[in-house]
Design a protein that fits this description.
With 404 residues, this protein is an alpha+beta fold. It has 12 helices and 18 strands. The chain has 3 domains: 3-195, HUPs (Rossmann fold); 219-292, Uridine Diphospho-n-acetylenolpyruvylglucosamine Reductase, domain 3, CATH 3.30.465; 300-401, no CATH class. A 6-stranded mixed beta sheet has the order 3-2-1-4-6-5, with helices on both faces. Strand 11 and strand 12 (314-317) form a beta hairpin. Helix 1 (20-31) crosses helix 5, helix 4 (110-123) packs across helix 6 (178-185) and helix 7 packs across helix 9 (232-246).
Length: 404
């Protein structure tokens, strides 16, 4: 993306810190006749912050560009970088919602692109994109980055050659953060050819990622055989796609992903793995998925006579012939409750445990947790409804379970 792709008929919001990157973008937008307003956040973390806000405000007024400034307080006990980022983008969203900007323009440049890629390689994480996206959504705000073809030096040169004022954030000179170390020790020393080679490498890596996601998108990633057929990288991306479909913030590490793969490869048909306090990974025979943990619903309903029960858990019609349910008039009052593994019922003259039936029926663990049985007045289990994988609810039956 470049400034050539910006639409002169649209209105943009420029995120401007008064650093050389955003001030160069300010200049380029004016030069190219792009309509924009400015959003500026002062976190008060540096002694020069107030001076920068005043100078940027004066510059905007001189150029007849509206500016919206947020004086923000940051909780220093939290991750300051992350906290500042959230504050910035929530501010941009508020302004975008209020004034209807088509996009927010952010001055990330080629050095940022290369730094991000090298950090991704060093951390060996599983990014959905290598480098930085030209267009993205953050906090439901349309973000565009028109300077990814410009180096940091290019932008400083634009400011200096055109007498554009700017300020350098002194904290950028420190090597306390990994990004700063990569910037000073690697990026700033790259030759032009080395930069282009890295950019080509990023493009190739993203082509590989596109192929991985193309395969995942046309596959059933809840099918265990399919998951195990993937190579390790594709498998790890597939597991994370499955997790994010439940919770977008959930990230499965390589270590945890390979632990899950062992579970998928094991002969155990039903396995539950706790991922977080709220989320489980569940293997159920030939299928696997992430699910929200929930308290087992130990419903128990006492029924005194012949009536129709149509509740969230089951449908039961006791008004007609109920001999198929092993119920007689002497059975009442009956109780319908959740099955317990050691429950026993009489089948063909033999006492059979519910657990054994569930195994024979290949009933998934999550379904066992909501499967009902019928008890007579003496607390004997007189009926356990049969589970069928392809069962369809049919009101012609006098008893069926509603699966959720």
């Amino acid at each position: 993306m470049s400034l050539d792709n910006l639409d002169k008929n649209k209105k943009y919001l420029l995120a401007c810190s008064y650093g050389p990157d955003s001030m160069a973008l300010f200049y380029l937008l004016e030069k190219n006749g792009i309509s924009f307003d400015v959003a500026h956040v002062n976190f008060g973390l540096r002694k020069e912050a107030a001076h920068e806000t005043n100078r940027l405000t004066a510059y905007c007024h001189k150029h007849n560009v509206p500016i919206y400034t947020l004086m923000a307080e940051v909780d220093r006990n939290n991750n300051i970088e992350d906290e500042c980022r959230k504050i910035r983008y929530k501010f941009f969203k508020m302004l975008s919602d209020k004034f209807g900007y088509d996009a927010v323009l952010v001055a990330h440049h080629q050095d940022d692109l290369l730094e991000t890629y090298l950090m991704q390689k060093k951390r060996r994480n599983l990014p959905k994109l290598y480098g930085i996206a030209e267009k993205t959504f953050i906090f439901e705000v349309n973000i565009q980055r028109p300077l990814l073809n410009y180096s940091k030096k290019d932008l400083i040169d634009i400011c200096q050659n055109n007498y554009i004022p700017y300020s350098i954030d002194s904290s950028n000179n420190e090597d306390d953060y990994l990004r700063n170390r990569i910037r000073h020790r690697v990026i700033e020393k790259l030759t032009s050819k080395e930069r282009q080679d890295l950019i080509k490498e990023i493009a190739a890596k993203n082509d590989e990622l596109n192929n991985v996601f193309s395969l995942i998108n046309k596959s059933n990633i809840h099918d265990i055989k399919t998951l195990l057929s993937f190579d390790e990288i594709t498998y790890l991306y597939a597991i994370n796609e499955s997790a994010s479909s439940l919770d977008k913030s959930l990230i499965i590490s390589k270590k945890r992903g390979l632990e899950i793969r062992k579970i998928l490869s094991s002969k155990k048909p039903n396995v539950v793995l706790k991922i977080t306090d709220k989320i489980l990974f569940v293997k159920e025979y030939d299928a696997a998925s992430f699910k929200f943990a929930k308290n087992q619903d130990n419903f128990s309903l006492r029924i005194n006579g012949r009536e129709v029960i149509d509740c969230d858990h089951f449908y039961l019609d006791l008004t007609g012939d109920i001999s198929n349910l092993n119920i007689t008039d002497d059975s009442f009052p009956i109780t319908v409750r959740i099955a317990q593994p050691k429950d026993k019922t009489l089948i063909n003259g033999y006492q059979v445990e519910a657990r054994r039936l569930f195994i024979d029926w290949k009933m998934p663990l999550s379904i066992r947790e909501q499967w009902p049985v019928i008890e007579d007045k003496s607390h004997n289990v007189i009926y356990i409804p049969r589970y069928q994988k392809d069962f369809v609810n049919d009101k012609k039956r006098n008893f069926y379970v509603k699966l959720h």
